[in-house]
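**Reference record**
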Amino acid sequence: MTNISKRFPGVHALDDVQLMVRHGEVHAVVGENGAGKSTLMHILAGVHQPDTGRIDVSGQQEVQIQGERMAQHLGIAIVYQERSLFESLSVAENIFAGRQPVRGGVWIARHRMISESRKLLAEVNLALDPATLLGALSPAEQQLVEIAKALSLNARLIILDEPTAALTEFESKTLFSVIRRLRREGKAVIYISHRLNEVFELADRVTVLKDGRWQATLDISDTNPDDLVRRMVGRDLRYTARRESANPEAGQTDETALQVQHLSDRLRGAGTWLRDVSFRVAAGEIVALAGLAGAGRTETAMSIFGARPYSSGKVFVGDRRRRIRCVPDAIGAGIGYMPEDRKLAGLFLDMSIAHNIAVTGLSRFGRILTNQRKLKAIAESYRERLNIASSSVQQSVRSLSGGGQQKVLLAKWLLIEPRVLIVDEPTRGVDVGAKIEVHQLLVELAERGTAVIVISSDLTEVLAIGERIMVMACGQIVGEMSGDEATEERIIHLASQSEAEG
């Protein structure tokens, strides 16, 4: 791709961008949200046409890719971050959706479709019955089915857009082994990700975009995470941990902010989910909670926050036991919770930034926050403090980037100054610059004495921000370590236990 430019109304999405991908390589494309990564990939996949520039594919020069069918004919396939599969159909039906083999010109050749699907699944290391309903598969398995579908198109270039966004670290490793196999077979993979640890683990080369312009294409051996971040955001931002800051003890005290004792959750017909969960978090401490999907991390958070009932156990905030039966009980006790899915459980997308920030504090500041002038002033102060990129506090939250939405969610809790803040996947789907800013905000909150619990499937994030790390498996805490002694291998080993110890 040479000198690619693309304009949309009011936006210069791409300006003279270059991208050259070789056979048998994994080529990462990185940049902040709005850098032009998706637009460039949509042009390559035939979704958009460039205003200017040329595209050469496998010796064919100045190709006009007018539609996804033409891209597929050229051997280009894209696997989007939002999956395009149907959970009510079988794996085989998803792989060949709209392209089912037929016999007699009329009837679907099911046996042939099953047989060909089985071969494609073997290519992505999936040993399962192609007749299985897609909805029965894990997110990681569904991602591999997407890749198998791309291979069914005889793709020689596969574009993967944030493929691990919904996967755990353990599931991501399975995907990585498939990507390496595709590379060995001579296929090219374009890998788009905000997770720089994945870029350095997988990629041979990396192209950096910023504000719709090409910044650099580098051999991965010639760069490092700090260098990529600087090129992406245009300033120096270190990908660092809190304990490496100038004052690593700031905010920490011996005072207990949250103590959970013997928390269990026996669900009717489902056995015990949470099993005797006990831990303590000090005021001003940042604790990371790691584990695989289904380990019980989110369930623990929701129980503490009153959003999920528990059958036994005690919750103390400070030195006082709190009987938390519902969310208002938790908020009244000084506990805040940023949920995993901010769009479903955390934000009112069609409301303004100002009203989203105010909603949590209505019971405490009701009279003030119903005054529109004062509400706007308070929201404006948080917009500036958190560097929320928007035209005004009256802008709808739906129109913000993922990082902007996450900052609005954080501002909701900063307003009421909780004693304990639990954040579930706080940087999922946000770019590197916004991720570092969110981390810095959590650090500042801890330095003012708030106890912060970070739930994350991104081990780079766990290791970067956790002063203490707890690992869950099978509904129970199975290990604990300081941030200084923690490693990815140690965390994965504990998290992968099939049966919790103790």
Summary: The first strand starts at residue 2 and ends at 8. Residues 498-502 have pLDDT under 50 and may be disordered. Residues 2-233 form a domain with the Rossmann fold fold (CATH 3.40.50.300). The radius of gyration is 24 Å.
